[in-house]
TrEMBL record:
This is DNA-binding response regulator. InterPro entries: CheY-like_superfamily, OmpR/PhoB-type_DNA-bd, Sig_transdc_resp-reg_receiver, WalR-like, WH-like_DNA-bd_sf. The lineage of its organism: Bacteria, Bacillati, Actinomycetota, Actinomycetes, Kitasatosporales. GO terms for cellular component: cytosol; protein-DNA complex. Residues 124-217 bind DNA. It comes from the Bacteria. Residues 2-116 form the Response regulatory domain. Keywords: DNA-binding, Phosphoprotein. GO terms for biological process: regulation of DNA-templated transcription. CDD domains: trans_reg_C (cd00383). Gene3D superfamilies: 3.40.50.2300, 6.10.250.690, Winged helix-like DNA-binding domain superfamily/Winged helix DNA-binding domain (1.10.10.10).
């Protein structure tokens, strides 16, 4: 899942981003509203975690611009004010969910995952392809009942491939949705990750390389 965290408090933003990355998400940061809109225009995010009380360009204006610009990203708005009137106002700006500060990190993760599911076509809670099972919520993957010790990036790539339902997923899309903006598009990162994933999945091989197109399970 590709997530943009928009928060002007840099230490909090870094802490949230680090926690989400440990959950296997690809996370970019923006410390103000202008940077948020710039990144959202360039990158395809599944979820934007947006602090409402941003200095300069207010979070309400960022949220409205995302909605009016046709962004497919779901918006989770954060604010120190948790009154009903504030929640109603935030949702009226185009936000999809609302979480008052301070919040429990586990709840933040749960809400992001729920919004991420809504950003994509409906999928079953557990993805199954033959003898391969993947549970995104529990971060567990297995083949023939054997636990697969996948790294966060390997898990993300496998989830994207299995969610495609047998369709081909290009290396560019895997890089776009599985890594943050710091990833070098000219590296062999995706190829290396798929290679490691193949070894961990074992034989017979489940990931097919489609020439000039990408990969599929």
């Amino acid at each position: 899942m590709r997530v943009l965290v928009v928060e002007d408090h840099e230490e909090l933003a870094e802490t949230v981003a680090a926690g989400l990355r440990r959950e296997g998400m690809a996370v970019d940061l923006a410390l103000d509203g202008h940077a948020a809109l710039e990144r959202a225009t360039v990158n395809g995010y599944d979820v934007v975690v947006l602090d409402r009380d941003l200095p300069g360009l207010h979070g309400d204006r960022v949220c409205r611009a995302l909605a009016e610009g046709g962004s497919r990203a779901r918006v989770l708005m954060l604010t120190a004010s948790g009154t009903v009137a504030d929640r109603v106002a935030g949702l009226g700006m185009g936000a999809d969910d609302y979480l008052p500060k301070p919040f429990a990190f586990t709840e933040l993760v749960a809400r992001i995952r729920a919004l991420g599911r809504r950003a994509q076509p409906a999928l079953p809670p557990v993805l199954v392809r033959g003898d391969l099972r993947l549970d995104p919520a529990r971060r567990v993957a297995s083949r023939e009942g054997r636990h697969l010790p996948l790294s966060p990036k390997e898990f993300a790539v496998l989830e994207l491939l299995m969610a495609a339902g047998g369709a081909v997923v290009s290396a560019e899309e895997l890089l776009e949705r599985g890594w943050d903006e710091a990833a070098d598009p000219f590296t062999q990162t995706v190829k290396v990750t798929v290679s490691r994933l193949r070894r961990k999945l074992g034989d017979p091989s489940l990931i097919e390389t489609v020439a000039q197109a990408g990969y599929r399970v």
